[in-house]
Design a protein that fits this description.
single chain; 25 helices; eight-stranded mixed β-barrel; five-stranded antiparallel beta sheet; Four Helix Bundle (Hemerythrin (Met), subunit A); Beta-Lactamase
Length: 923
């Protein structure tokens, strides 16, 4: 027994209250100091970062001054070195912009500029450096302005350029010194901030040490005293209650029956309940000890331990054994007992109670079996299974722990938010959504939803979760079935990305663009604002693709996408519709000038040389502009209007932008009408084949003809092929038209070979589009076989650009023609982009010199030299030459003199119907 404390309860309570108040006050003071130090450290970090950002921006602007001075000098050289007015004007614009930006930045660095984000607060050293370079700056500005004012005066130009060159190096040296000084001052500020931060950290550590010394140490000491006093009180209470517990033991042990034994452990009393499942007399155990009753089955070792306990006169609880009843079924029994002592302390026997626990044992067995079954399901489930209480995870299976990269034991005690990002995919806070779901489940409403987690390694885990309410250890908990759907989510994301974005440029594709345009139209209607749509088409992409190959073409499209994106705001949309067609959607427009600025910026940037790997590419673009709601009210209308305006830019010379006008709409409607009428012409017998003779120069006789299609319109008469052939290629009607012209040509070829000359040939033009129809070549060959004609009477005319397409359809068709005797002629030779190497690679039979060379043919002219060179080259390669567009006898004589093989043109005959052509043959 511990000795009593001398202090009274009132004194102890008063002293405890005073100590608690002291500790609380110290704790508040320490916590306040730590909070203030933390805020000070945070303020210091933020202010340091802000100062560093400002200093970096100033250094960048200063560095840009160096670049601008070099640009001004270089551009001045370019102005003085070119005689091209347009190029000089472009250089002058560049110089004017550079000078303006140079002056603005120079003034901003010294005096500050809100527009440029410059504070204008410089040290004395930097101010002195600026004063040193100020004369050079002013002299260079003066020289540049003289160039801008009198760019065509060579004396002024020479003098100004010399002064710029002389001043540039000194200005660059001065700017380098300024940039170096800016950088050094920035480093000094950072070093000072670091020293202050270290000082704050040391002060914080000191406060923590003092808090430990004067707050936590006294608190621990006081707690130990309280615990000791509590232990003393518990010991006293236990001593007082021991006697009472002995008297109440039988009451607390009340069960199915009671029993009593004497000092020799013989039963002296047993209540009737002991034999309720048998017909054994309730007097049968009397006078016997428990181990004398042979119908009680218990392990011998357990019996021995029990006898030793009884001999020590100790109490026992829940001693279990079993026996078989009259029906042969096991009956499980549990007994408890207390020793009995008289007033002198002498042992006089035992008394106790017994309980039939057979039903409890059966239920326990069922529970154990169910638990084993469900534990197997729990541990081996394919999905993660979690039991979640109000304070976090209570239990989980191995698969659930594996999902998060942890063990099952590590999961217990953690919360779902320990594995969740701050926000879910819908933008809502994870804790907010999780609290709603948990509250709903605890109120009895099952939940089914998707959730993003974060694994231990930092990677994302997308899951599908089913929550339901269960009872676990007597408490309401949520049972979570968690399925990993990360692969499905990634697949959905890839599918969505492929469906909405261009694979090559990563820009929005046509589908995504239509969706955004529809949304922006709705926003423009609500805000009563305009939006602009720019339709952009590269001017010479096809030629670049043909000459440099598709890989270079793809790289060019990627670079063009990047350039266009840099010319617009982040809120605007740049999309690739396909091929070399791009669109730009400008929203929240204040005035039309902003649209023109964007269009001009795109045109200027795309006009600059683009370097891709080893190639430097010159390209340009044509832009069509349409405005909403002025020009159209829906998506399709806007795109069509912008497309029409873009084609106007093409027709006006390219490298420009054009706005949509009502006249363009009329032209588009006329074009659509013409397409519909062309469809009727193909099926309505309105097409005609005309033939133009090809004259053999050495004899003047007609051995060849070119088949040319004509459209006999019922109202308009003959329609120019230039007007309807492009429409036929665009709509696919060229296949049907081309096959019809071929059949008509083959029919007349067979007739004229029989009536005129067996080696007579007809040339048929074949559009590049036709080569990409799968059955095109096979159909022509089978038709010739069907009417009994060999391929030697047919010449297929193609453009030289087609030779650059080395893909399978073109190669296969040309090889098939060669194998079947069909000859090939290169039409309009000399006007395309082909390399002479292709003439040697393919089986070409004829070169048709374009009429642009023939029209200006004269002795000693460059056209004469080029034409003669083509003829000599062709003959060296074993090719024949046909001159197109021969209209005068002088042209014929000159061609004959330089060895041209054949000629055609108005000098001999215009294209005529077959009946008239037959008369020419007879002549």
């Amino acid at each position: 027994m511990r000795r009593n404390r001398s202090r009274s309860p009132q004194q102890a309570e008063s002293r405890a209250d005073f100590s608690a108040r002291q500790l609380r006050l110290r704790y508040i003071i320490a916590l306040s100091l730590i909070a203030l130090l933390t805020l000070a450290s945070q303020w210091l970090i933020q202010s340091t970062v802000a100062r560093h950002d400002r200093d970096s921006h100033v250094i960048n602007i200063a560095g840009r001054q160096r670049m601008l001075s070099q640009q001004i000098t270089k551009t001045s050289y370019y102005i003085g070195g070119t005689n091209d007015p347009q190029l000089k004007l472009a250089y002058l614009n560049q110089l004017r912009q550079a000078v303006a930006l140079w002056e603005q930045s120079h003034a901003g660095l010294q005096k500050g500029s809100e527009q440029l984000g410059l504070p204008g607060q410089n040290s004395a050293e930097i101010v002195a450096l600026f004063r040193q370079i100020q004369p050079r700056h002013e002299d260079m500005i003066k020289a540049a302005r003289q160039i801008l004012q009198r760019p065509d005066d060579p004396v002024i130009l020479e003098s100004a350029i010399r002064r710029l060159s002389e001043d540039e190096s000194m200005f660059l040296s001065g700017m380098d010194a300024i940039v170096f000084r800016y950088d050094a001052e920035a480093e000094e500020k950072v070093a000072l901030a670091e020293r202050l931060e270290i000082a704050l950290a040391l002060v914080t550590l000191l406060v923590l040490f003092l808090a430990t010394r004067f707050i936590f140490t006294p608190a621990v000491r006081r707690l130990r005293q309280d615990i000791q006093e509590l232990e003393d009180a518990v010991a006293v209470k236990e001593a007082l209650n021991s006697a009472e517990n002995r008297f109440l033991s039988l009451v607390q042990l009340g069960s199915d029956w009671y029993w009593e034994q004497d000092e020799n452990f013989r039963f002296v009393e047993v209540s009737s309940g002991v034999h309720f499942r048998s017909n054994i007399s309730e007097t049968k155990p009397l006078g016997k000890t428990r181990w004398d009753l042979d119908y009680l089955d218990m392990d011998e070792a357990a019996w021995q331990q029990h006898r030793e306990l009884l001999l020590r006169h100790e109490s026992f609880r829940n001693l279990e054994f079993h026996r078989k009843d009259d029906q042969g079924e096991l009956q499980f029994i549990s007994v408890s007992g207390e020793p009995i002592f008289d007033e002198t302390g002498r042992f006089t026997g035992y008394r106790g109670v017994g309980e039939d626990i057979t039903e409890r044992k059966r239920i326990e067995q069922q529970i154990a079996e169910e638990h084993s079954k469900y534990k197997a399901l729990f541990d081996n489930a394919q999905d993660g299974i979690f039991i979640i209480g109000r304070d976090g995870y209570v239990d989980c299976n191995q698969e659930g722990a594996r999902m998060y990269g942890r063990s099952a034991s590590e999961m217990v005690g953690l919360t779902p938010y320990d594995f969740s990002p701050e926000h879910q995919l819908d933008g809502r806070l994870s804790r907010e959504v999780g609290a709603e779901k948990m509250q709903a489940v605890l109120s009895g409403k099952a939940q089914h939803f998707e959730w993003r987690h974060v694994r231990a390694d930092g990677s994302f885990l997308d899951t599908e979760i089913k929550l339901s309410l269960i009872s676990y250890s007597g408490k309401k908990c949520a049972l979570a079935i968690v399925r990993d759907i990360s692969e499905r989510k990634r697949a959905e994301e890839v599918i969505w990305q492929q469906a909405n974005f261009d694979n090559l440029t990563t820009l929005p594709n046509r589908r995504m663009f239509h969706d955004r345009l529809g949304q922006e139209i709705k926003k423009a209607n609500r805000a009563n604002q305009q939006l602009a749509l720019l339709f952009i088409d590269l001017d010479n992409f096809k030629e670049i693709n043909d000459t440099l190959g598709h890989p270079v073409g793809d790289l060019l499209l990627i670079e063009v996408a990047r350039i266009i994106s840099q010319c617009v705001r982040e809120t605007d949309t740049v999309a690739r519709l396909g091929g070399d067609e791009f669109t730009v959607l400008l929203t929240e427009l204040d005035d039309a000038k902003s649209v023109e600025r964007v269009a001009s910026s795109i045109l200027n940037k795309l006009s600059e040389p683009i370097r891709l790997a080893q190639d430097e590419i010159l390209t340009s673009a044509s832009i069509g502009i349409t405005l909403y709601p002025n020009d159209a009210r829906d998506i399709d209308g806007l795109i069509k209007s912008a497309d029409q305006a873009m084609y106007v830019s093409k027709k006006l010379g390219r490298k420009r932008y054009s706005y949509f006008t009502p006249a363009l709409q009329e032209a588009a409607q006329h074009r659509l009408k013409l397409i519909n009428e062309l469809r009727l012409a193909v099926s309505g017998d309105q097409l005609r084949v005309y033939f133009q003779p090809i004259i053999e120069m050495s004899t003047g006789r007609i051995f060849k003809a070119e088949a040319l299609v004509r459209w006999q319109h019922p109202q308009r008469g003959l329609v120019n092929p230039v007007e309807f052939i492009p429409l036929a290629e665009e709509t696919g009607l060229i296949f049907e038209i081309g096959d019809w012209v071929f059949r008509e040509s083959a029919r007349w070829l067979k007739h004229w070979q029989a009536s005129h000359h067996e080696k007579f040939q007809i040339s048929v033009n074949k559009s590049p589009v036709q080569f990409y129809k799968d059955t095109d070549g096979d159909y022509w060959l089978s038709h010739l076989q069907g009417i009994g004609l060999s391929g030697q009477g047919l010449v297929v005319e193609i453009t030289e650009g087609l030779l650059l397409k080395t893909d399978s359809p073109v190669m296969d068709s040309l090889l098939s023609y060669r194998d079947n005797g069909i000859q090939v002629a290169i039409d309009d030779f000399g006007t395309g982009y082909s390399s002479l190497a292709y003439l040697n690679r393919f089986d070409i039979d004829y070169l048709k010199v374009d009429r642009s060379f023939i029209s200006n043919l004269a002795t000693g002219s460059s056209d004469m030299a080029l034409t003669e060179a083509i003829i000599v080259m062709a003959h060296k390669l074993g090719l024949k030459v046909i001159a197109e567009g021969v209209e005068t006898e002088s042209q014929r004589d000159l061609l004959k003199a330089i060895g041209c093989d054949f000629a055609q043109g108005f000098l001999f005959s215009r294209p005529v119907p077959p009946e008239e052509f037959e008369k020419l043959l007879l002549c």
